[in-house]
Amino acid sequence: MKTMKNMLLFFLMLSVFTVSAQKKKVAVVTFYANKVIDFTEIAGDKLTESVAKKVFDLRDNPKFNLQPILNKYHDAFFTEYAKSFPFDLIPEADVVNSDAYKNFVPKFQMDKFQANDYLVYNGYKYIYDGPAAAANEEGIAKAMADGIQADGVMFVHIDFAFEKGFGIGGTSTLKVKAFTRISAYNKKGEKLFVINENERSKKTMVMVGGVPVLDVDKILPNCESALEELMGDLNKRIQKIVKKTEAKL
User: Fold this and answer.
1) Fewer CB atoms inside 10 Å of the end CB: C or N, the chain?
2) SS3 of 163, please?
3) Each residue of 168-187: pLDDT tens digit?
4) Phi and psi at residue 204, in whole multiples of 5°?
């Protein structure tokens, strides 16, 4: 009889441990790249029409294809970086194919012009988070909690920017910086963490007379190089920031 009681106690404790050990579930709700390279640093206080035109012409150039770069980051995020989070990511198909996700209407929707600015990964919506975006953060968090029992939501995107280097005379070097923002919110839309990381490209280009030479065949490898540098030790950076996240879910 005593042995039987001990066994029952053991299985009860095992059951309690298993339930408590189950990880929370978080839904990634947006994943995109900004196709407009930030030219603030090279334009300075004098935003010339010619520089702006070059940047937007680059955005609209079919050869400026950021899809392989976005795919590479996306795949690494879900196969490698996901292991660093103290929660499980809900399968993407379960998120984007859910009625809750399909029916969610984000605030700050893109008009036709702005739609050209962003490359959104297959199946996702463009959903902005950050300053003045509480409606998005709280709205999608509630929708995912009610619709697919998500304990939280995550927003992921990458951006690029020009960075001036050293110069001689009227010619100077130019690099590209890759940025990523990874942010997570609990089911109430309360912020869990925001990760902002960036790295510059190893490759360089040139500026002549303060105007960048934006050849697609040169700029795209710089974007790739910057992202590779960013992805290099991103896992370690993520691990440092998300250590205490699970308790907040």
Assistant:
1) N
2) strand
3) 656 778 899 999 999 999 99
4) -135, 160
